[in-house]
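Render this sequence as a predicted structure.
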Amino acid sequence: MHLYQPYSSTVVQGLHWVSLAGALGFGVFHLLFGFNYLVGCLELIASPFLIFSLVRTRRTGNLSRRALLVFTLLMMTAIAVFTYDNGFRGLAFVFPVVAGLFYLMPVAAAGLLGATFTLVLFALGSHTVGADMLLRFGVSVVITYCFIWFLVMGQKQSLSRLNRSYLTDPLTGLANRRSMDKWLSHYQGDPHSLCLFQLNIHQFKSVNQRYGRATGDALLQQLAHRLQMLPDQLFADGLIGGGKRLLARTSGDEFVLGLPISRKQHSGRVAEAIRHRLTGAYQVFEHQLMLTMTLGYSRCNLTTPSDKLQQANLATTQGKATQPGLCYEFSEAMAKEMQLEASILQGLKRAMDIGAFELKYMPIHGLATPWCTSAEVLVRCTLPELDGVGPDKFIPVAEKYGLIYDLDLWIIQRCFSEIQSLSHSHREEVRDLRLALNISSMQLNNPKLASQLLSLASSYEIDLNRLDLELTETAMVSHTSEGLKMLTELRRNGVKVVLDDFGTGYTAFTQLQHYPIDRLKIDRSFVSQLEREGAEQTRSLVDVILRVAAIYEIPVTAEGVETREQEEYLIKRGCHQFQGYLYSPPQSLEALLAARRRQMAGSPAITSVPAFD
Protein backbone atom coordinates (compact mmCIF):
# COMPACT_ATOMS: atom_id res chain seq x y z
CA MET A 1 0.00 0.00 0.00
CA HIS A 2 1.28 3.46 -0.91
CA LEU A 3 0.50 6.46 1.21
CA TYR A 4 0.92 8.83 -1.69
CA GLN A 5 -2.24 10.82 -2.39
CA PRO A 6 -2.78 13.05 -5.45
CA TYR A 7 -2.39 16.66 -4.44
CA SER A 8 -3.06 19.56 -6.78
CA SER A 9 -0.68 19.87 -9.72
CA THR A 10 0.45 23.35 -8.59
CA VAL A 11 1.57 22.07 -5.16
CA VAL A 12 3.38 19.07 -6.65
CA GLN A 13 5.22 21.25 -9.18
CA GLY A 14 6.18 23.68 -6.40
CA LEU A 15 7.70 20.85 -4.36
CA HIS A 16 9.63 19.71 -7.42
CA TRP A 17 11.08 23.21 -7.99
CA VAL A 18 12.11 23.62 -4.34
CA SER A 19 13.79 20.18 -4.26
CA LEU A 20 15.50 20.79 -7.59
CA ALA A 21 16.84 24.16 -6.42
CA GLY A 22 18.22 22.55 -3.27
CA ALA A 23 19.86 19.62 -5.09
CA LEU A 24 21.45 21.81 -7.76
CA GLY A 25 22.45 24.50 -5.28
CA PHE A 26 24.18 22.13 -2.85
CA GLY A 27 25.74 20.19 -5.72
CA VAL A 28 27.29 23.31 -7.26
CA PHE A 29 28.31 24.56 -3.79
CA HIS A 30 30.18 21.34 -2.96
CA LEU A 31 31.96 21.29 -6.30
CA LEU A 32 32.95 24.96 -6.39
CA PHE A 33 34.16 25.25 -2.82
CA GLY A 34 35.70 21.81 -2.63
CA PHE A 35 33.90 20.58 0.47
CA ASN A 36 33.10 17.16 -1.03
CA TYR A 37 33.32 16.43 -4.73
CA LEU A 38 31.55 13.05 -4.45
CA VAL A 39 28.55 14.57 -2.65
CA GLY A 40 28.32 17.32 -5.26
CA CYS A 41 28.47 14.84 -8.14
CA LEU A 42 25.79 12.62 -6.60
CA GLU A 43 23.47 15.61 -6.11
CA LEU A 44 23.97 16.78 -9.70
CA ILE A 45 23.44 13.24 -11.06
CA ALA A 46 20.19 12.97 -9.08
CA SER A 47 18.79 16.24 -10.45
CA PRO A 48 17.81 14.97 -13.98
CA PHE A 49 15.51 12.37 -12.42
CA LEU A 50 13.75 15.15 -10.54
CA ILE A 51 13.54 17.17 -13.77
CA PHE A 52 11.97 14.14 -15.53
CA SER A 53 9.29 13.86 -12.84
CA LEU A 54 8.64 17.61 -13.03
CA VAL A 55 8.14 17.49 -16.82
CA ARG A 56 5.74 14.54 -16.48
CA THR A 57 3.81 16.37 -13.79
CA ARG A 58 3.39 19.42 -16.01
CA ARG A 59 2.21 17.30 -18.95
CA THR A 60 -0.06 14.73 -17.30
CA GLY A 61 -0.65 16.03 -13.78
CA ASN A 62 0.90 12.83 -12.30
CA LEU A 63 4.43 12.70 -10.94
CA SER A 64 6.84 9.85 -11.76
CA ARG A 65 7.22 7.77 -8.62
CA ARG A 66 10.07 5.71 -10.08
CA ALA A 67 12.09 8.77 -11.04
CA LEU A 68 11.56 10.24 -7.58
CA LEU A 69 12.66 6.95 -5.98
CA VAL A 70 15.93 6.96 -7.98
CA PHE A 71 16.45 10.61 -7.00
CA THR A 72 15.87 9.71 -3.34
CA LEU A 73 18.31 6.76 -3.40
CA LEU A 74 21.05 8.94 -4.96
CA MET A 75 20.42 11.64 -2.36
CA MET A 76 20.54 9.01 0.41
CA THR A 77 23.97 7.96 -0.85
CA ALA A 78 25.11 11.59 -0.89
CA ILE A 79 23.82 12.05 2.68
CA ALA A 80 25.69 8.92 3.79
CA VAL A 81 28.96 10.26 2.36
CA PHE A 82 28.31 13.65 3.94
CA THR A 83 27.65 12.01 7.35
CA TYR A 84 30.89 10.03 7.20
CA ASP A 85 32.84 13.23 6.59
CA ASN A 86 30.92 15.61 8.85
CA GLY A 87 29.61 13.38 11.62
CA PHE A 88 26.12 13.39 13.11
CA ARG A 89 25.26 16.63 11.37
CA GLY A 90 24.17 14.40 8.48
CA LEU A 91 21.38 13.00 10.68
CA ALA A 92 19.50 16.26 10.13
CA PHE A 93 18.59 14.96 6.64
CA VAL A 94 17.62 11.42 7.59
CA PHE A 95 14.12 11.98 8.94
CA PRO A 96 12.65 13.93 5.97
CA VAL A 97 14.10 11.31 3.63
CA VAL A 98 12.70 8.39 5.67
CA ALA A 99 9.27 10.04 5.83
CA GLY A 100 9.34 10.58 2.07
CA LEU A 101 10.03 6.89 1.42
CA PHE A 102 6.55 5.98 2.66
CA TYR A 103 5.04 8.01 -0.18
CA LEU A 104 7.15 6.34 -2.85
CA MET A 105 6.92 2.61 -2.07
CA PRO A 106 4.86 0.11 -0.04
CA VAL A 107 4.85 0.67 3.72
CA ALA A 108 6.82 -2.46 4.62
CA ALA A 109 9.56 -1.75 2.09
CA ALA A 110 9.75 1.92 3.12
CA GLY A 111 10.03 0.98 6.80
CA LEU A 112 12.80 -1.55 6.19
CA LEU A 113 14.77 0.77 3.91
CA GLY A 114 14.30 3.74 6.26
CA ALA A 115 15.47 1.77 9.31
CA THR A 116 18.48 0.44 7.41
CA PHE A 117 19.39 3.91 6.16
CA THR A 118 19.13 5.34 9.69
CA LEU A 119 21.40 2.62 11.14
CA VAL A 120 23.93 3.11 8.34
CA LEU A 121 24.10 6.87 8.98
CA PHE A 122 24.37 6.24 12.72
CA ALA A 123 27.29 3.91 12.15
CA LEU A 124 29.01 6.25 9.67
CA GLY A 125 28.87 9.20 12.06
CA SER A 126 29.65 7.35 15.31
CA HIS A 127 33.43 7.79 14.98
CA THR A 128 33.11 11.56 15.45
CA VAL A 129 31.55 11.54 18.99
CA GLY A 130 32.12 9.95 22.35
CA ALA A 131 30.15 7.15 23.96
CA ASP A 132 27.84 9.40 26.03
CA MET A 133 26.97 11.57 23.01
CA LEU A 134 26.48 8.43 20.93
CA LEU A 135 23.94 7.16 23.48
CA ARG A 136 22.03 10.45 23.56
CA PHE A 137 21.94 10.58 19.76
CA GLY A 138 20.76 6.96 19.66
CA VAL A 139 17.84 7.58 22.04
CA SER A 140 16.73 10.67 20.14
CA VAL A 141 16.92 8.83 16.82
CA VAL A 142 14.83 5.93 18.14
CA ILE A 143 12.18 8.28 19.57
CA THR A 144 12.02 10.35 16.38
CA TYR A 145 11.79 7.22 14.26
CA CYS A 146 8.91 5.95 16.44
CA PHE A 147 7.06 9.23 15.89
CA ILE A 148 7.50 8.80 12.15
CA TRP A 149 5.99 5.31 12.41
CA PHE A 150 3.06 6.61 14.49
CA LEU A 151 2.45 9.25 11.81
CA VAL A 152 2.67 6.71 8.99
CA MET A 153 0.40 4.11 10.62
CA GLY A 154 -2.14 6.76 11.58
CA GLN A 155 -2.30 8.02 8.03
CA LYS A 156 -2.51 4.47 6.75
CA GLN A 157 -5.56 3.82 8.93
CA SER A 158 -7.13 7.10 7.84
CA LEU A 159 -6.59 6.23 4.19
CA SER A 160 -8.01 2.77 4.76
CA ARG A 161 -11.17 4.24 6.31
CA LEU A 162 -11.38 6.79 3.50
CA ASN A 163 -11.07 4.10 0.84
CA ARG A 164 -13.77 2.03 2.55
CA SER A 165 -16.15 4.98 2.68
CA TYR A 166 -15.31 5.90 -0.90
CA LEU A 167 -15.83 2.40 -2.29
CA THR A 168 -18.43 0.96 0.10
CA ASP A 169 -22.13 1.55 0.53
CA PRO A 170 -22.43 2.83 4.13
CA LEU A 171 -25.82 1.21 4.80
CA THR A 172 -25.24 -2.35 3.56
CA GLY A 173 -21.45 -2.69 3.55
CA LEU A 174 -21.55 -3.84 -0.08
CA ALA A 175 -19.54 -2.28 -2.87
CA ASN A 176 -20.96 0.98 -4.20
CA ARG A 177 -21.17 2.17 -7.80
CA ARG A 178 -17.58 3.52 -7.82
CA SER A 179 -16.26 0.19 -6.58
CA MET A 180 -18.39 -1.68 -9.11
CA ASP A 181 -17.10 0.43 -12.00
CA LYS A 182 -13.52 -0.18 -10.83
CA TRP A 183 -14.18 -3.93 -10.55
CA LEU A 184 -15.66 -4.10 -14.03
CA SER A 185 -12.89 -2.08 -15.67
CA HIS A 186 -10.12 -4.18 -14.04
CA TYR A 187 -11.78 -7.60 -14.40
CA GLN A 188 -9.16 -10.16 -15.45
CA GLY A 189 -11.17 -13.39 -15.22
CA ASP A 190 -12.66 -15.51 -17.97
CA PRO A 191 -15.07 -13.22 -19.88
CA HIS A 192 -17.08 -16.21 -21.10
CA SER A 193 -17.92 -17.34 -17.57
CA LEU A 194 -18.79 -13.94 -16.11
CA CYS A 195 -22.53 -13.35 -15.75
CA LEU A 196 -23.87 -10.04 -14.47
CA PHE A 197 -27.19 -9.90 -12.65
CA GLN A 198 -29.15 -6.75 -11.83
CA LEU A 199 -31.77 -6.98 -9.09
CA ASN A 200 -34.52 -4.41 -8.63
CA ILE A 201 -36.84 -4.57 -5.60
CA HIS A 202 -40.49 -4.32 -6.57
CA GLN A 203 -42.28 -1.28 -5.07
CA PHE A 204 -39.60 -0.56 -2.47
CA LYS A 205 -40.74 3.06 -2.20
CA SER A 206 -44.04 1.89 -0.76
CA VAL A 207 -42.15 0.24 2.12
CA ASN A 208 -40.54 3.57 3.06
CA GLN A 209 -43.81 5.42 2.68
CA ARG A 210 -45.88 2.95 4.71
CA TYR A 211 -43.46 1.79 7.41
CA GLY A 212 -40.85 4.56 7.52
CA ARG A 213 -37.28 4.89 6.30
CA ALA A 214 -35.82 3.06 9.31
CA THR A 215 -37.80 -0.06 8.37
CA GLY A 216 -36.74 0.29 4.73
CA ASP A 217 -33.07 0.57 5.76
CA ALA A 218 -33.36 -2.50 7.99
CA LEU A 219 -34.91 -4.44 5.11
CA LEU A 220 -32.00 -3.49 2.84
CA GLN A 221 -29.51 -4.59 5.48
CA GLN A 222 -31.18 -7.98 5.78
CA LEU A 223 -31.18 -8.35 2.01
CA ALA A 224 -27.48 -7.41 1.90
CA HIS A 225 -26.76 -10.08 4.52
CA ARG A 226 -28.42 -12.70 2.31
CA LEU A 227 -26.49 -11.41 -0.68
CA GLN A 228 -23.18 -11.77 1.15
CA MET A 229 -23.92 -15.43 1.92
CA LEU A 230 -25.33 -16.12 -1.55
CA PRO A 231 -22.10 -16.82 -3.54
CA ASP A 232 -20.90 -19.48 -1.10
CA GLN A 233 -24.34 -21.10 -1.15
CA LEU A 234 -24.42 -21.14 -4.95
CA PHE A 235 -20.86 -22.52 -5.03
CA ALA A 236 -21.82 -25.29 -2.61
CA ASP A 237 -24.76 -26.18 -4.87
CA GLY A 238 -22.46 -26.36 -7.89
CA LEU A 239 -24.16 -23.48 -9.67
CA ILE A 240 -21.12 -21.18 -9.86
CA GLY A 241 -17.39 -21.71 -9.91
CA GLY A 242 -14.53 -20.15 -8.02
CA GLY A 243 -13.15 -16.80 -9.02
CA LYS A 244 -13.77 -13.11 -8.60
CA ARG A 245 -17.24 -12.09 -7.43
CA LEU A 246 -19.02 -8.75 -7.29
CA LEU A 247 -21.71 -7.71 -4.80
CA ALA A 248 -22.76 -4.09 -5.14
CA ARG A 249 -25.62 -1.78 -4.27
CA THR A 250 -25.89 0.78 -7.05
CA SER A 251 -28.99 2.71 -5.94
CA GLY A 252 -31.71 2.67 -3.30
CA ASP A 253 -33.50 -0.48 -4.53
CA GLU A 254 -31.01 -1.83 -7.06
CA PHE A 255 -28.21 -4.39 -6.62
CA VAL A 256 -25.67 -5.90 -9.01
CA LEU A 257 -24.04 -9.33 -8.81
CA GLY A 258 -21.09 -10.50 -10.90
CA LEU A 259 -20.60 -14.27 -10.67
CA PRO A 260 -18.39 -16.78 -12.51
CA ILE A 261 -20.51 -19.54 -14.07
CA SER A 262 -19.08 -22.62 -15.75
CA ARG A 263 -19.78 -22.95 -19.45
CA LYS A 264 -21.85 -26.09 -18.87
CA GLN A 265 -24.12 -24.34 -16.35
CA HIS A 266 -27.25 -22.53 -17.59
CA SER A 267 -27.50 -18.90 -16.50
CA GLY A 268 -31.27 -19.10 -16.18
CA ARG A 269 -31.00 -21.77 -13.51
CA VAL A 270 -28.59 -19.61 -11.51
CA ALA A 271 -30.90 -16.59 -11.90
CA GLU A 272 -33.89 -18.54 -10.59
CA ALA A 273 -31.82 -19.81 -7.64
CA ILE A 274 -30.82 -16.22 -6.80
CA ARG A 275 -34.39 -14.98 -6.99
CA HIS A 276 -35.64 -17.92 -4.91
CA ARG A 277 -33.10 -17.30 -2.13
CA LEU A 278 -33.63 -13.54 -1.97
CA THR A 279 -37.40 -13.18 -2.31
CA GLY A 280 -40.01 -14.05 0.29
CA ALA A 281 -40.73 -13.02 3.86
CA TYR A 282 -38.42 -10.71 5.85
CA GLN A 283 -39.05 -10.06 9.54
CA VAL A 284 -38.19 -6.39 10.07
CA PHE A 285 -38.89 -5.13 13.59
CA GLU A 286 -42.55 -6.00 14.24
CA HIS A 287 -43.43 -6.19 10.53
CA GLN A 288 -43.31 -9.19 8.23
CA LEU A 289 -42.56 -7.86 4.76
CA MET A 290 -42.88 -9.81 1.53
CA LEU A 291 -40.09 -8.90 -0.87
CA THR A 292 -40.26 -9.55 -4.61
CA MET A 293 -37.76 -8.46 -7.22
CA THR A 294 -37.20 -8.36 -10.96
CA LEU A 295 -33.90 -9.86 -12.08
CA GLY A 296 -32.21 -9.17 -15.40
CA TYR A 297 -28.97 -10.83 -16.46
CA SER A 298 -26.51 -11.09 -19.33
CA ARG A 299 -23.78 -13.56 -20.20
CA CYS A 300 -23.06 -12.54 -23.81
CA ASN A 301 -19.57 -13.80 -24.67
CA LEU A 302 -18.52 -11.09 -27.11
CA THR A 303 -19.06 -8.14 -24.78
CA THR A 304 -17.08 -6.42 -22.04
CA PRO A 305 -18.19 -6.58 -18.40
CA SER A 306 -19.50 -3.02 -18.65
CA ASP A 307 -21.55 -3.95 -21.72
CA LYS A 308 -22.96 -6.94 -19.87
CA LEU A 309 -24.09 -4.65 -17.07
CA GLN A 310 -25.85 -2.38 -19.55
CA GLN A 311 -27.54 -5.41 -21.09
CA ALA A 312 -28.62 -6.72 -17.68
CA ASN A 313 -30.05 -3.28 -16.91
CA LEU A 314 -32.04 -3.33 -20.14
CA ALA A 315 -33.39 -6.82 -19.34
CA THR A 316 -34.44 -5.63 -15.88
CA THR A 317 -36.13 -2.51 -17.24
CA GLN A 318 -38.10 -4.44 -19.83
CA GLY A 319 -38.94 -7.12 -17.28
CA LYS A 320 -40.39 -4.54 -14.90
CA ALA A 321 -42.51 -3.13 -17.71
CA THR A 322 -43.69 -6.60 -18.81
CA GLN A 323 -44.27 -8.53 -15.59
CA PRO A 324 -42.35 -7.62 -12.43
CA GLY A 325 -41.05 -10.29 -10.11
CA LEU A 326 -39.48 -12.67 -12.67
CA CYS A 327 -36.08 -13.33 -14.26
CA TYR A 328 -35.26 -11.97 -17.71
CA GLU A 329 -32.23 -12.76 -19.88
CA PHE A 330 -30.86 -10.19 -22.29
CA SER A 331 -31.46 -11.14 -25.92
CA GLU A 332 -30.68 -9.73 -29.34
CA ALA A 333 -34.35 -8.81 -29.66
CA MET A 334 -33.89 -6.53 -26.66
CA ALA A 335 -30.85 -4.98 -28.30
CA LYS A 336 -32.83 -4.24 -31.46
CA GLU A 337 -35.65 -2.81 -29.38
CA MET A 338 -33.15 -0.62 -27.54
CA GLN A 339 -31.76 0.67 -30.85
CA LEU A 340 -35.28 1.28 -32.14
CA GLU A 341 -36.18 3.20 -28.99
CA ALA A 342 -33.07 5.35 -29.34
CA SER A 343 -33.89 6.17 -32.98
CA ILE A 344 -37.52 6.95 -32.09
CA LEU A 345 -36.39 9.21 -29.25
CA GLN A 346 -33.99 11.10 -31.51
CA GLY A 347 -36.63 11.48 -34.21
CA LEU A 348 -39.29 12.47 -31.70
CA LYS A 349 -37.14 15.28 -30.32
CA ARG A 350 -36.53 16.60 -33.83
CA ALA A 351 -40.21 16.29 -34.73
CA MET A 352 -41.17 18.29 -31.65
CA ASP A 353 -38.61 20.96 -32.49
CA ILE A 354 -40.03 21.51 -35.98
CA GLY A 355 -43.67 20.57 -35.27
CA ALA A 356 -43.69 17.55 -37.61
CA PHE A 357 -47.07 16.24 -36.45
CA GLU A 358 -50.58 16.31 -37.82
CA LEU A 359 -53.99 15.49 -36.39
CA LYS A 360 -56.43 12.93 -37.74
CA TYR A 361 -60.03 12.51 -36.62
CA MET A 362 -61.69 9.09 -36.23
CA PRO A 363 -65.48 9.43 -36.59
CA ILE A 364 -67.69 7.98 -33.84
CA HIS A 365 -71.20 6.96 -34.89
CA GLY A 366 -74.21 6.75 -32.61
CA LEU A 367 -77.58 5.03 -32.81
CA ALA A 368 -79.76 8.10 -33.13
CA THR A 369 -78.31 9.65 -36.30
CA PRO A 370 -76.84 8.31 -39.57
CA TRP A 371 -73.90 10.71 -39.34
CA CYS A 372 -71.06 10.84 -36.85
CA THR A 373 -71.83 12.69 -33.67
CA SER A 374 -68.28 12.90 -32.38
CA ALA A 375 -64.69 12.12 -33.31
CA GLU A 376 -61.55 10.93 -31.55
CA VAL A 377 -58.48 13.10 -32.11
CA LEU A 378 -55.41 11.09 -33.16
CA VAL A 379 -51.85 12.32 -33.68
CA ARG A 380 -49.55 11.23 -36.51
CA CYS A 381 -45.87 12.04 -36.95
CA THR A 382 -44.90 13.34 -40.41
CA LEU A 383 -41.12 13.20 -39.94
CA PRO A 384 -39.61 11.02 -42.73
CA GLU A 385 -37.25 9.32 -40.27
CA LEU A 386 -40.27 8.06 -38.30
CA ASP A 387 -42.22 6.88 -41.32
CA GLY A 388 -44.20 3.81 -40.27
CA VAL A 389 -43.77 4.52 -36.55
CA GLY A 390 -47.24 5.01 -35.12
CA PRO A 391 -48.46 6.49 -31.85
CA ASP A 392 -48.45 3.04 -30.28
CA LYS A 393 -44.63 3.20 -30.50
CA PHE A 394 -43.69 6.86 -30.12
CA ILE A 395 -46.17 7.75 -27.35
CA PRO A 396 -44.60 5.25 -24.85
CA VAL A 397 -41.16 6.69 -25.70
CA ALA A 398 -42.46 10.21 -25.12
CA GLU A 399 -43.86 9.11 -21.75
CA LYS A 400 -40.65 7.36 -20.73
CA TYR A 401 -38.43 10.37 -21.44
CA GLY A 402 -40.79 13.10 -20.21
CA LEU A 403 -41.70 14.52 -23.64
CA ILE A 404 -45.37 13.64 -23.32
CA TYR A 405 -46.32 16.82 -21.44
CA ASP A 406 -45.26 19.08 -24.31
CA LEU A 407 -46.69 16.70 -26.90
CA ASP A 408 -50.12 16.51 -25.23
CA LEU A 409 -50.19 20.29 -24.91
CA TRP A 410 -49.30 20.65 -28.61
CA ILE A 411 -52.13 18.26 -29.57
CA ILE A 412 -54.69 20.15 -27.48
CA GLN A 413 -53.59 23.53 -28.85
CA ARG A 414 -53.48 22.29 -32.46
CA CYS A 415 -56.93 20.72 -32.15
CA PHE A 416 -58.44 23.92 -30.72
CA SER A 417 -56.72 25.94 -33.45
CA GLU A 418 -58.19 23.76 -36.22
CA ILE A 419 -61.65 23.99 -34.70
CA GLN A 420 -61.42 27.77 -34.48
CA SER A 421 -60.16 28.12 -38.06
CA LEU A 422 -63.18 26.18 -39.38
CA SER A 423 -65.73 27.70 -37.05
CA HIS A 424 -66.23 30.72 -39.36
CA SER A 425 -67.10 28.71 -42.50
CA HIS A 426 -68.67 25.68 -40.80
CA ARG A 427 -69.90 27.16 -37.55
CA GLU A 428 -72.98 24.97 -37.03
CA GLU A 429 -71.20 21.75 -38.05
CA VAL A 430 -68.22 22.39 -35.82
CA ARG A 431 -70.39 23.46 -32.89
CA ASP A 432 -72.45 20.27 -33.19
CA LEU A 433 -69.40 17.95 -33.28
CA ARG A 434 -68.10 16.41 -30.05
CA LEU A 435 -64.32 15.81 -29.81
CA ALA A 436 -62.41 13.28 -27.71
CA LEU A 437 -58.79 14.02 -26.75
CA ASN A 438 -56.47 11.28 -25.51
CA ILE A 439 -54.16 12.33 -22.68
CA SER A 440 -51.37 10.34 -21.12
CA SER A 441 -51.87 8.75 -17.71
CA MET A 442 -48.84 10.78 -16.58
CA GLN A 443 -50.98 13.91 -16.91
CA LEU A 444 -52.87 12.86 -13.78
CA ASN A 445 -49.75 13.91 -11.89
CA ASN A 446 -49.49 17.21 -13.79
CA PRO A 447 -51.02 19.96 -11.62
CA LYS A 448 -50.86 22.42 -14.54
CA LEU A 449 -53.00 20.45 -16.99
CA ALA A 450 -56.40 21.73 -15.86
CA SER A 451 -55.38 25.39 -15.92
CA GLN A 452 -53.60 24.97 -19.27
CA LEU A 453 -56.59 23.28 -20.89
CA LEU A 454 -59.07 25.84 -19.54
CA SER A 455 -56.83 28.72 -20.64
CA LEU A 456 -56.47 27.32 -24.18
CA ALA A 457 -60.20 26.69 -24.41
CA SER A 458 -60.85 30.30 -23.45
CA SER A 459 -58.27 31.62 -25.95
CA TYR A 460 -59.71 29.62 -28.86
CA GLU A 461 -63.37 30.00 -27.77
CA ILE A 462 -63.92 26.26 -27.38
CA ASP A 463 -67.12 24.99 -25.78
CA LEU A 464 -65.90 22.58 -23.08
CA ASN A 465 -69.34 20.95 -22.99
CA ARG A 466 -68.43 19.36 -26.37
CA LEU A 467 -65.08 17.99 -25.18
CA ASP A 468 -64.14 14.52 -23.87
CA LEU A 469 -60.86 13.47 -22.21
CA GLU A 470 -59.91 9.84 -22.74
CA LEU A 471 -57.78 8.06 -20.14
CA THR A 472 -56.76 4.41 -20.00
CA GLU A 473 -58.21 2.11 -17.38
CA THR A 474 -54.83 1.45 -15.75
CA ALA A 475 -54.31 5.20 -15.38
CA MET A 476 -57.50 5.47 -13.36
CA VAL A 477 -56.53 2.55 -11.13
CA SER A 478 -53.20 4.19 -10.27
CA HIS A 479 -54.70 7.68 -9.91
CA THR A 480 -53.61 10.06 -7.20
CA SER A 481 -55.88 12.27 -5.13
CA GLU A 482 -54.48 15.29 -7.00
CA GLY A 483 -55.37 13.67 -10.32
CA LEU A 484 -58.88 12.99 -9.12
CA LYS A 485 -59.27 16.63 -8.06
CA MET A 486 -58.07 17.76 -11.49
CA LEU A 487 -60.64 15.58 -13.28
CA THR A 488 -63.36 16.79 -10.96
CA GLU A 489 -62.46 20.41 -11.75
CA LEU A 490 -62.57 19.75 -15.49
CA ARG A 491 -65.95 18.04 -15.18
CA ARG A 492 -67.30 21.06 -13.32
CA ASN A 493 -66.35 23.11 -16.38
CA GLY A 494 -68.22 20.77 -18.73
CA VAL A 495 -65.48 18.32 -19.83
CA LYS A 496 -66.53 14.65 -19.89
CA VAL A 497 -64.16 11.85 -18.81
CA VAL A 498 -64.01 8.69 -20.93
CA LEU A 499 -62.44 5.47 -19.68
CA ASP A 500 -60.51 4.10 -22.66
CA ASP A 501 -59.50 0.46 -23.35
CA PHE A 502 -61.92 -0.79 -20.72
CA GLY A 503 -61.51 -4.47 -19.88
CA THR A 504 -57.73 -4.64 -20.42
CA GLY A 505 -56.78 -3.35 -16.96
CA TYR A 506 -57.68 -4.15 -13.38
CA THR A 507 -60.62 -1.88 -12.51
CA ALA A 508 -63.24 -3.65 -10.43
CA PHE A 509 -66.74 -3.06 -11.79
CA THR A 510 -67.94 -1.91 -8.39
CA GLN A 511 -65.35 0.87 -8.44
CA LEU A 512 -67.01 2.58 -11.40
CA GLN A 513 -69.32 4.42 -9.05
CA HIS A 514 -66.30 6.03 -7.33
CA TYR A 515 -64.59 7.26 -10.49
CA PRO A 516 -65.66 10.44 -12.32
CA ILE A 517 -66.52 8.47 -15.49
CA ASP A 518 -68.98 9.64 -18.16
CA ARG A 519 -68.41 6.95 -20.80
CA LEU A 520 -66.66 3.60 -21.31
CA LYS A 521 -64.82 2.43 -24.44
CA ILE A 522 -64.53 -1.32 -25.10
CA ASP A 523 -61.03 -2.11 -26.33
CA ARG A 524 -60.62 -3.11 -29.98
CA SER A 525 -58.91 -6.37 -28.95
CA PHE A 526 -62.28 -7.64 -27.66
CA VAL A 527 -64.29 -6.39 -30.62
CA SER A 528 -61.97 -8.07 -33.14
CA GLN A 529 -62.63 -11.50 -31.58
CA LEU A 530 -66.43 -11.36 -31.47
CA GLU A 531 -66.80 -13.36 -34.72
CA ARG A 532 -64.03 -15.89 -34.14
CA GLU A 533 -64.70 -19.49 -33.23
CA GLY A 534 -63.88 -20.40 -29.65
CA ALA A 535 -64.14 -16.79 -28.48
CA GLU A 536 -67.02 -17.47 -26.08
CA GLN A 537 -65.03 -16.10 -23.16
CA THR A 538 -64.42 -12.80 -24.96
CA ARG A 539 -68.08 -12.48 -25.95
CA SER A 540 -69.10 -13.22 -22.37
CA LEU A 541 -66.77 -10.49 -21.09
CA VAL A 542 -68.18 -7.98 -23.57
CA ASP A 543 -71.71 -8.92 -22.47
CA VAL A 544 -70.76 -8.40 -18.82
CA ILE A 545 -69.19 -4.99 -19.55
CA LEU A 546 -72.34 -3.83 -21.32
CA ARG A 547 -74.64 -5.11 -18.58
CA VAL A 548 -72.64 -3.51 -15.78
CA ALA A 549 -72.40 -0.25 -17.72
CA ALA A 550 -76.19 -0.28 -18.06
CA ILE A 551 -76.54 -0.78 -14.29
CA TYR A 552 -74.39 2.29 -13.64
CA GLU A 553 -76.05 4.13 -16.54
CA ILE A 554 -72.74 4.73 -18.29
CA PRO A 555 -72.85 4.90 -22.11
CA VAL A 556 -70.47 2.58 -23.99
CA THR A 557 -68.45 3.08 -27.19
CA ALA A 558 -66.95 0.12 -29.08
CA GLU A 559 -63.57 0.63 -30.75
CA GLY A 560 -62.25 -1.17 -33.81
CA VAL A 561 -65.57 -2.16 -35.41
CA GLU A 562 -64.74 -3.49 -38.88
CA THR A 563 -67.67 -5.74 -39.88
CA ARG A 564 -71.47 -5.55 -39.87
CA GLU A 565 -71.56 -8.74 -37.80
CA GLN A 566 -69.56 -7.07 -35.03
CA GLU A 567 -71.83 -4.03 -35.22
CA GLU A 568 -75.01 -6.11 -35.04
CA TYR A 569 -73.72 -8.14 -32.09
CA LEU A 570 -72.91 -4.98 -30.13
CA ILE A 571 -76.19 -3.24 -31.03
CA LYS A 572 -78.25 -6.19 -29.81
CA ARG A 573 -76.49 -6.04 -26.45
CA GLY A 574 -77.03 -2.35 -25.91
CA CYS A 575 -73.86 -0.65 -27.14
CA HIS A 576 -74.42 3.05 -27.87
CA GLN A 577 -71.59 4.27 -30.12
CA PHE A 578 -69.18 2.72 -32.61
CA GLN A 579 -65.93 3.65 -34.29
CA GLY A 580 -63.74 1.74 -36.69
CA TYR A 581 -62.83 1.20 -40.33
CA LEU A 582 -66.34 -0.09 -41.05
CA TYR A 583 -67.40 3.55 -41.05
CA SER A 584 -64.26 5.51 -41.90
CA PRO A 585 -60.51 5.64 -41.43
CA PRO A 586 -58.98 8.57 -39.53
CA GLN A 587 -59.07 11.71 -41.66
CA SER A 588 -58.57 15.45 -41.51
CA LEU A 589 -61.15 17.63 -39.82
CA GLU A 590 -62.27 19.17 -43.13
CA ALA A 591 -62.68 15.71 -44.73
CA LEU A 592 -64.66 14.53 -41.72
CA LEU A 593 -67.03 17.49 -41.92
CA ALA A 594 -67.50 16.95 -45.67
CA ALA A 595 -68.34 13.27 -45.12
CA ARG A 596 -70.69 14.27 -42.33
CA ARG A 597 -72.57 16.61 -44.68
CA ARG A 598 -72.99 13.79 -47.19
CA GLN A 599 -74.27 11.44 -44.49
CA MET A 600 -76.74 14.05 -43.28
CA ALA A 601 -77.99 14.39 -46.87
CA GLY A 602 -79.37 10.86 -47.15
CA SER A 603 -77.47 7.93 -45.54
CA PRO A 604 -79.64 5.51 -43.53
CA ALA A 605 -79.27 5.43 -39.78
CA ILE A 606 -77.87 2.53 -37.81
CA THR A 607 -80.65 0.15 -36.81
CA SER A 608 -80.91 0.49 -33.06
CA VAL A 609 -82.41 -1.18 -30.05
CA PRO A 610 -83.73 0.71 -27.03
CA ALA A 611 -80.78 2.23 -25.25
CA PHE A 612 -80.09 5.34 -23.23
CA ASP A 613 -77.83 8.07 -24.61
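Summary. Residues 1-7, 607-613 have pLDDT under 50 and may be disordered. The chain has 22 helices and 15 strands.
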